[in-house]
Prior knowledge:
About 35% of the residues lie in helices and about 25% in strands. The site of uridine 5'-triphosphate has 21 residues, from helix 5.
Amino acid sequence: MTESHPKITKAVIPAAGLGTRFLPATKATPKEMLPVVDKPAIQYVVEEAVAAGLDDVLMITGRNKRPLEDHFDRNYELESALAKKGDESRLAKVQESSDLATMHYVRQGDPRGLGHAVLCAAPHVGREPFAVLLGDDLIDPRDPLLARMVEIQERHGGSVIALMEVAPEQIHLYGCAAVEATSEGDVVKVTDLVEKPEAADAPSNYAIIGRYVLDPHVFDILRKTEPGRGGEIQLTDALQQLAADEKIGGPVHGVVFKGRRYDTGDRGDYLRAIVRLACEREDLGPDFKAWLRSYVTEEM
Ligand code: UTP
């Protein structure tokens, strides 16, 4: 790390989206609060930021998102009831989320897109590089990604995005990166970005997933970025400008992720995340796996 590449301490978690793919569950409950086994999806995301050394967390929220703030705050009534009963293990579970990180919140009045959500973080972040973790993207805790991205940013400066190889017929669901190889197998240089291209127009099968380490120049670009695809201010459009002109905020690198990742805003992926993480839990796994095995062989 050099002086021109200051240490990253802040994580921004955009969680102001409407979650329409999960209606009606998300009519009054944020999708980030849906439980993955016995923890809300958002807690895994905050734990991931803390595990990568970022314990200053700014969450971008909106209407109907109060439960997110409550989850990371103390609940004295519940805590004193559990303490009175001497139920130490449940008390620890209640306190875990409020002791995790220093939490800050800002509201995105109108959900005008991911780029606009990130811009809401500008006053809190200032002129330091910072991480962005999408609140509905769950990276398996055993496959660390963010720490590697922070390391690459501290070495090269500029911005770092997370990429995953997907099948060509899936690329229209993601932002897509044109890349050049580097001397490190899991790191590429990003030369261009396209938001949700058709397979025939896609420059590669590298899809952008919900982890970013960004140079603060991205705020200057986002302030001038017009609404793009879907009438939303797209983060990908701003990143595309960073990749096109290194003089603005340094290079854009990509870390290619090969681990387990779930989009908990998608119903199928959400179910897969629960089954997989439940199977691997020491307390629940053995019984649940035995049941699952017999269910699959006898019922399906
Ligand atoms: P999605 O594309 O998943 O949109 O946003 P969404 O509205 O949350 O969900 P669907 O598609 O309607 O089901 C990607 C991420 O960007 C955040 C979301 O909370 C999610 O973490 N986001 C999106 C914002 O914070 N603000 C926005 O204006 C849009």
